Amino acid sequence: MASLSSISSPLFIFFLFISLSHSDSDSPIQDPQLSSLEQESVYQVLESINSTINWRINFPDDICYSSPHGINCEYFTDENGNTSVHITELNIGYVSESSPNPTCSSTATLSPSLTSLPYLRKLFFYKCFTQTKVFFPEFFSNLSSTLEELVFVENPSLFGTLNGKIDNMKNLKKLVFSGTNVSGEIPDGVGELGEIEQITLTRNEFRGKIPVSLGKLKKLKVLDLSFNKFEGNVPDSIGEIPELFHLDLSSNQFNERIPKSLVKLQRLEFLDLSYNRFANYGIPLFLGEMQGLKEVYLSGNSLGGPIPEIWKKLGGISGIGLSGLGLVGKIPSSMGVYLRNVNYISLDNNKLEGNVPEEFGLLESVLNELNLENNMLSGRLPFSANFSAKIGRKLKLAGNSKLCVDEEVLSFDDKGFQFEL
Prior knowledge:
With about 425 residues, the protein is an alpha/beta fold. Helix content is about 10%, strand content about 20%.
């Protein structure tokens, strides 16, 4: 969605061509103008986020043609061929030199004038509500049905709930609340957002259970509910989302079983269920059938049991997190045989015993970090001195009193690095 301030846009060239082709006319065609209602609405939105700037004096002309960075417009043509111009994006909050959006003051708030922008597609706030408490307002339920992206990132002074405020956004594709104090449950009406592709609600104060209706979101690709206070079971309906490739439910209070229905997520590449309360059922065997997985993290649950032989079909995995699960028994040699793309493995803080399999030496060319701390491992490591020198402190072995390390490995680091056994 390009800003009209860009003179290289195809639309600009199109209108320039029309003007030139009518240069001999007494009434040259003029670029369409933003309506006075939309212009006034944008002024009021800008004044609500930062009243210390005189937006009307700084940007007195048509704001579609001389706007602050982050305010974008588009041309629209109706069935009669009439062309108009409208606000389609509001990106608020300074991000970087390359994205110097309008800055927010310490008293920033949300203006109801947002509902007077009937063509709005994207609404983005970054580090805008950081000091003065602002409640997510009721009028959001009246935002334009054209809205496709609703994004709040790093707004710790934003409070309230989503109840009844997003149900009408039928064209919404991206819903992001990251680093806010928005709380309450995910409204069941979220299941009616049939066009949505991303739901990221991380590092907020959401609680309660995940609505079963999420399973109706057939276009959803990313579901991130991490670092909240969700509880109860993960509904089987999550397995009914065919396009899902990123699922992060970490750092919540989910319990009972990890649902077997997840095996149906054959497009899933990233799975993080770490630091919940899943217990006593072991590492799910069905993970071995999810051949698309590239990262799987289960750390911080009480799953128990041995590490299962599930690795034959998971050769594409690059990251495995199995820390603090209460795992027992030996590390299977099949992990070294089949995981030929893995660069991160954490098996620390379990009750694993026996040798580190010789087959782990086959992983030297790909491993960047291996954490085996605080187990009951013994015997000699199957790694060369060159590998140990390359990986350095990311080879973590402390807390394994019977694990033997070659002297040449102990002396490799000219900075005095030494394994803590």
